[in-house]
Amino acid sequence: MHFLDSFIKLVDIIIWPMTILIILGWFRTELKSFFGNLKKIEASADGFVLESFEKQLAKTRALFTDVGTAKSAQPIGGSESVFSRDLTMSPLEQLQKWDSQLRSQILSKSRTDGHTAEEALVLLKTQGVITFSDFERLEQLLGLGKRTPTKVSQALLSELETFYNIASIE
Q1: What is the pLDDT of residue 58?
Q2: How many independent structural domains does the chain possess?
Q3: 72 is in which domain, residue-wise?
Q4: Both 28 and 73 in a single domain?
Q5: Is 111 left (phi over 0), alpha (psi -120 to 50) or beta?
Q6: Tens digits of per-residue pLDDT, 29-77?
Q7: I want to staple 124 with a disulfide (CB 3.0 to 4.6 A). Which of 13, 105, 128, 129 is the partner?
Q8: Statement to judge: residues 67 and 141 lie in one domain
Q9: Do 14 and 57 belong to one domain?
C-alpha cells in the first residue's frame, strides 16, 4: 500500500508539468514562429509589451510611402543605388549584408569613432546632416535589421531593397 500511495503522489506532482509539455509540443511550430518574429519584449509595471517584426515592418512601410518608389526617389545622400542583390546569398544573408552596409554608411557619414550606428544617426540628425524624416526612416531600417525573420520571401526582399536604396546616405 505504501508503494501505491507514493506512486499516486508522484503522478499528482508531475501531471501538470507533463500536461504543459505535451501542449507546448503540439503547438511548437506556432510558438516558434511567434517568438521567432518578436522584435522586442519589455516588462513593466503596466504589463508586457511584445513587438513583432511585422509590426516593425508596417511602421517602416508607412514611413517610406511618402517617398515613393526607388525609381522616382533619390537616395538620402543623392547617390545611386548601392544596395543590390547578390544571387549567391540567401534572402536572410542579403538583408544582413544590407543592414551592415547601412550601418557602415551611417558611421562613415558621421565621422565619429566609438559610436554605434544608432548613436551616430542621432549625431547626424542633431548636426543637421539629415532631416528628421530621413532620421526616422534610417532608424526604422536599423531596427528591422536587428531582428529579421529566418524566412524572408523574395517579395519582402524586393520591398526592403527599395527601402534600403532610398535610405542610402553615401
Answers
A1: 84
A2: 2
A3: 53-167
A4: no
A5: left
A6: 776 666 665 555 666 666 655 566 777 788 888 888 876 544 444 455 5
A7: 129
A8: yes
A9: no
